[in-house]
Design brief:
about 110 residues; mainly alpha; elongated; 5 helices
Amino acid sequence: MDRSLKAALLSALVFPGAGQLYLRRYVPAAAFVLVALAPLWYLSDLVLARATSIVDQVLSGALAPDAALIASQIEHQSGAEGLLPTLAGWLLLACWVVSIADAWWSGRARLPEE
């Protein structure tokens, strides 16, 4: 397996920037990791806040422990945040795709096995 394919697979399957680390391109690797971590942190925080809110409602008795009711509550909360979660998801996806492409092209540009 050549270096460009290994780097692209690392960026695709591990995390954006992993392929750049494999190629010893530390500055682009750090940039991809940081850009990917920002929306990932935001989305994780948002999901955790939603889950905590629903669990608190169930434990307090304000929401019955019924799957259909919980699903409708999740849908109701999903519309409250607006466009920001969608943009964060697209930013994460774009960072991931660009990281894969950059790892592939950078691996192709480098000399064969060092």
